[in-house]
Design goal:
The complex is a heterodimer. By secondary structure, chain A is α/β, with parallel strands linked by helices. In chain A, the strands form 13 sheets. A five-stranded parallel β-sheet of chain A has the order 10-7-6-18-31, covered by helices on one side. The longest helix of chain A has 21 residues, at about 105-125. By secondary structure, chain B is an alpha/beta fold. A four-stranded parallel β-sheet of chain B has the order 2-1-3-4, with helices on both faces. Classes of the chains: A alpha/beta, B alpha/beta. At the A-B interface, helix 3, helix 4, helix 5, helix 15 and helix 16 of A face helix 1, strand 2, helix 2 and helix 3 of B.
Chain lengths: ~650, ~150
């Protein structure tokens, strides 16, 4: 074994404290060290050329580079070593500049410490093994789950760059939540108008396959190579044939609560979820249809001008697709207001969630955009309760981020539609970050009929729902106050959507403590899940506004394009964990501690198996293995142990 | 080299401390102290892991056996771990170690766990300085433990 040591002087940065000759003398006495060469700036072009040439001449078996922090230069020197035809993992760096020279007052002690470190590195490097970066073929196609703003933009960006995309949407129409909003904050832009051009582009793209009424049923595989099964429930209308005329809808004899309008009105069993939505084809709600009750009703099929479009025998379908990456953009829900019995939600009065109120404001909603109470009268007064469940340790401790802004949007729209109506804002905190977002707040504050009432605890607010009007009781100082509000609008916290848990379990991506999809890093990588190849966009990751959701959708597309570049192979980092199958007891403790679900279990051999593609090389499983069967490449038990021994000698 | 060899010119005991640092936070914090050129006692010898979650308790025991008078385990702050929860695993293993060390009669101050972020060069200096002082006061690790270990092996 021949170890070559290079001692970078870094100008005078290192040699000001550490005498290279003394280091050289001591290092040359270490076992296997064949030479120790002090050099000038090793990271400079001249330094790197010298290193490569010298390594080619000396042909050492192992290399120790005593210089600066490996965090900054390990990659550089690995390249040099590789250029000299030595495996880059047979090199070990010693951080003399940042962790000895610059921080040790006494030059004598600095020399000693440097020698300890070089001894540790020499012992360690002796045991280091050559590692190869493997490459695998990837499938360039992408699955996008959820066709709200985030999913649509991600799909479109990917399709524009030539990727084939499968876009899966649970509901009959694309567009997500904003197509339900007549106007968007902060500039009162029309929601459907903003989204329709994007939807149209998606529908026209030859690279996007859109599967509505569909959900992911099964996923196997890993980054670069997932096989996905998608389950599509029957629409009973052939979208290829349907011309979207709606002739089938009018004569349908059955009415059922309209989910799209939060049950505030009725739809036909055969109906468009949203008029003008895409795809422009109705669907049958089979739970409501007379045929499900055994009757042989064929009214819709008879009314349809295109033969064969309405198909009562339509069946559930399973589509299988291969994709290299998955973008999750499944959105979120609203916190259940039944958790606040004192707010009288669902007790028959005029108490609405913000989403229901959005539908009342919408031209495509149950009242055609007129703000009317259940009795059909325009309200004389409205109470808007902010922070229903948000910023509340007993419910959701986080701020949902958008409620204040839509509440002031409501203020603006109500003022426009009902100039005489009073609006009471019961708020806990007012949050309107962003360069444009303060406008609606300012207008609400200037509104002569708007009143702001701050409360400390939502439990102090009591709504008494009654026919005609509601009474809202609240504390003011020591006194109990009361006011009348014909309508009460609750702004519930944004919470994870219902299916998140199941989807996360299927994909093995974690959920955070609130149930949102867990990101790889809160600030640096919030568009990536902890599982390689699975990306996050929109409110399924955290509450956010449309701008944030769309940006994250674009970010997810960017991650896919940069990490799974088409035509390129996927590099597998060699610093991963590895199982010695014969030593594995099959206890599976490693699987429990792995944050990336990178460890599978081979039932035939009763042993854990590391998927090097998913492994990030942290080594937690190695430390956890009670049998010593798991080891970490480049950070093996033996290598670390040798380093400890070396630095302590 | 034995602990006695490290006695400084004033005859004061100079402890040997092994520091297990994670690559992303605490090792970067140590580099930060370097960039700031803040001097600190040279007693800590750093061994770098990718994650504090790699810290196998056996490494700590090995360090004591091979002459360390103290061990420092430095991790990312909770919520900052590059690998999500490796630092949490490290705290669990540290608590377990303390039980074990107690049985061996080793003072728990000889095995300190702390959090140093990539920006906390000052904290790194503070922790290393405190640890050096603590171990200096405690004196060398008693030989009994070392002979026990040798007996085991």
């Amino acid at each position: 074994m021949k170890i070559g040591v290079y001692f970078c002087k870094c100008g005078t940065n290192i040699t000001e404290k550490i005498d290279p000759e003394r280091v050289e003398n001591e290092v040359l006495a270490l076992p296997n060290v064949a030479y120790c060469k002090p050099c000038e700036y090793l990271c400079s072009e001249e330094g790197k050329t010298f290193l490569e040439q010298d390594l080619k001449g000396e042909k050492p078996d192992r290399v120790v580079i005593s210089a600066c922090s490996p965090r900054d230069y390990e990659r550089t020197f690995r390249e040099c070593v590789a250029n000299a035809d030595i495996n880059p993992y047979l090199m070990q760096m010693v951080n003399v500049r940042e962790q000895v020279a610059w921080v040790t007052a006494d030059p004598e002690l600095a020399v000693q410490k440097t020698v300890h470190y070089i001894r540790g590195a020499a012992k360690r490097v002796t045991l280091q093994a050559p590692l190869e970066e493997k490459e695998i073929e990837i499938c360039p196609e992408v699955l996008v789950v959820g066709a709200g703003p985030a999913g649509l933009k991600a799909a479109m960006a990917l399709a524009d760059s030539g990727r084939k995309v499968v876009l899966v949407e649970k509901t009959p129409v694309v567009g997500g939540m904003p197509v339900r909003y007549e106007e968007l904050f902060p500039n009162l832009e029309c929601g459907p108008c903003m989204l329709e051009p994007i939807e149209a582009e998606v529908f026209q793209s030859k690279n996007i396959e859109i599967l509505t009424l569909s959900e992911v049923a099964e996923v196997v595989g890993y980054c670069g190579n997932f096989t996905v099964k998608i389950r599509q429930v029957p629409r009973f209308v052939d979208m290829e044939k349907c011309i979207g005329c709606g002739e089938c809808v009018t004569p349908c004899p059955v009415s059922t609560p309209n989910d799209f309008n939060c049950g505030l009105d009725q739809r036909k069993a055969m109906a468009f979820a949203l008029k003008g939505g895409l795809p422009n084809a109705p669907s049958i709600d089979m739970k409501a249809c007379l045929r499900a009750k055994g009757e042989d009703c064929t009214i819709c099929r008879t009314a349809c001008p295109v033969e064969g479009t309405v198909n009562f025998d339509d069946q559930e379908r399973i589509f299988e697709r291969n994709v290299g990456a998955i973008v999750l953009a499944v959105g979120s829900s609203l916190y259940d207001c039944a958790a606040f019995p004192d707010l009288a939600y669902g007790k028959g009065g005029d108490v609405y969630t913000s989403l229901e109120f959005e539908r009342l404001l919408s031209a495509s909603g149950p009242t055609g955009g007129k703000v009317l109470t259940r009795a059909g009268a325009p309200p004389r007064s409205l109470a808007i309760l902010h922070c229903v469940g948000s910023l509340d340790e007993r419910h959701k401790p986080y701020c949902s981020g958008v409620c204040c802004q839509y509440a002031f949007k409501f203020n603006q729209l109500v003022q426009h539609k009902l100039p005489e109506a009073k609006v009471f804002h019961f708020y806990r905190e007012l949050v309107t970050p962003g360069k444009e977002e303060c406008g609606l707040l300012a207008r609400a504050m200037a509104h002569p009929h708007a009143q702001f009432i701050r409360y400390g605890n939502i439990a102090d607010l009591k709504v008494q729902a009654a026919q005609g009007t509601n009474r809202v009781r609240y504390p003011d100082g020591g006194a109990e106050c009361e006011l009348e509000a014909d309508m009460v609008v609750l702004c519930p916290a944004i919470v994870p959507s219902e299916g998140s848990k199941q989807l996360a379990a299927m994909l093995e991506t974690g959920l955070d403590k609130f149930g949102f999809f867990d990101e790889l890093h809160g600030r640096a990588d919030s568009g990536q899940s902890k599982i390689k190849g699975i990306f996050l966009a929109g409110t399924c990751q955290s509450p956010k506004d449309i701008q944030g959701a769309i940006n994250q959708g674009m970010a997810a597309a960017g991650y896919v394009l940069s990490q799974l570049a088409s035509g390129k192979k996927l590099k597998i980092e060699p610093i991963t964990a590895q199982v010695r199958e014969d030593a594995c007891s099959g206890c599976q403790i490693c699987r429990g501690v792995c944050p990336y679900k990178a460890i599978g279990f081979d039932l035939d051999h009763q042993a854990s198996v590391v998927n090097p593609l998913l492994c990030h090389g942290c080594g937690t499983c190695v430390a956890a293995c009670p049998s010593g069967a798991m080891d970490g490449n480049h950070f093996t038990m033996a290598q670390i142990s040798a380093e400890i021994e070396g630095v302590l000698q | 080299m034995t602990a006695e060899n490290l006695n400084n010119q004033q005859g004061q005991f100079e402890p040997k401390i092994v520091g297990f640092l994670c690559n992303w936070c605490s090792y970067a914090g140590a580099d930060k102290a370097g960039l700031a050129q803040t001097p600190y006692p040279p007693n800590v010898r750093v061994v770098r892991f990718m994650c504090s979650g790699r810290m196998d308790p056996q490494f700590v025991l090995q360090a004591y056996e091979q002459g360390a008078d103290g061990v420092l385990i430095l991790a990312c702050h909770f919520g900052d771990c590059h690998y999500k929860e490796g630092n949490f695993r490290a705290t669990q293993r540290h608590s377990m170690l303390l039980h074990l060390l107690k049985q061996e009669g080793i003072e728990e101050q000889r095995c300190r766990f702390d959090y140093v972020s990539a920006g906390e060069g000052d904290k790194f200096v503070q922790v290393v300085t405190e640890m050096t002082e603590t171990i200096r006061k405690l004196g060398p690790l008693h030989k009994q433990f070392i002979s026990n270990c040798e007996g085991d092996s």
